Amino acid sequence: MTAALSRRWARIAIGFVVPALFLSWWQWQASSGDARSLAFAPLQSIGSAFVELAESGSLLSDMVSTLSRSLTGLALGGTLGVALGVAMAVWRPLDRVLGPLLHAIRQVPLIGWLPLIGLWFGTGQGSELIVVSISAFFPTLLNSYAGVTHVEPRYLDVGRIYGFTPLQRFRLILLPAAMPLILTGLTQGLAFAWIASIATEILLGVGGGLGVTMQVAQTQQQLDIILVAIIATAILGFVINQLFLRLRRHLLRWQAVPL
User: CATH no. for residue 57?
Assistant: First the structure.
């Protein structure tokens, strides 16, 4: 037991080696005194900015705004993506009608839709939510479609032998077999929604959010606040992803091979 605990702490300590070296290099660059030091805020300045933003409550408010926008976009775009992907896989006429159009639309970079979305819906928070929802839509659509279409035919044959109705085949065979890829699509959709939330906040600069804080700090040349917002974005995004992966493992705990 002691040896296992020691190995665990050793792995944790090794994980801090690279961050410690990076912070040392950063502080050295910031205190070098040459022209390059202007692009590196000292660690104590970043710490002071973090304390100031945390005490004022603005950092927590920005994190909540960005997180809320990301999860709402995932809920809207992800739900529609899963439903449409499954429907297209089950009902092939729908796939033949919508498939070419959707595949053509997804070739356009998401940022390329911003001018059109802004023209139609304005540059408010509604447009931000639309962009975030679209970013979550396509990963969930494609993975849900692939999950259903790649179900092994022998599983369906078993359903026919037992006389399952179409609804029973879908509920008891297709959906469980496709669930790993559906959850993979939702995981990717969450990542895309998080990235799109930050990007739209920076580009549109409306409402609250970590991206808005970055954009405002850039115009005011506050490098320390920009770095605090970037660090908060990275940490919060990592935590959300880890929580979602744990949820995925729990939902797929029936699989023989752990994910």
Answer: 1.10.3720.10
